[in-house]
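Same chain as my last thread, 173 residues:
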Amino acid sequence: MDTKEKIRSWAETLEEVKEKVTNEEGTKTSMVMPFFQLLGYNVFDPTEFIPEYTADVGSKKKEKVDYAIIIDGKPLIFIECKPHFEDLKKHSAQLIKYYNSTVEAKFGILTNGIIYKFFADLENANIMDKTPFLTIDMLNLKERDLVELEKFMRENLDVDTILSSAEELKYTR
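reply #2:
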């Protein structure tokens, strides 16, 4: 089974999984971590997938983003999670704070385990855009979503390719 098929299969079981999850921690461990594992990340390797990553914000210290994906020793992707029953509209400000405080981060993902919103800094360097360049609903997957997700797979991860695609997606949306 290739990765696209695995993701489709995971999406089919997600409806069942979400019925058993009642809080943010459950969403993270039962919905978000398995998703990133499907993308090829070792979610149990604290040098690659760091939970509660410290992203200090101005005078506020010890601010923590839910996960940071570390590539070549630097945080490349920040992931902020909310419970699966939460609407993500009111939560991007929290991710923006973390993202803007860490120059190395190139992508931010806001998720409730079902909806994944992918952000970058296409408008201003080191300042996360307010609008995601890609939104994926795991319960309504489309072929183009799978094509975009393949770019975020650990084995395919190339910042320039993703940013180029993000530019295109942003302006064709």
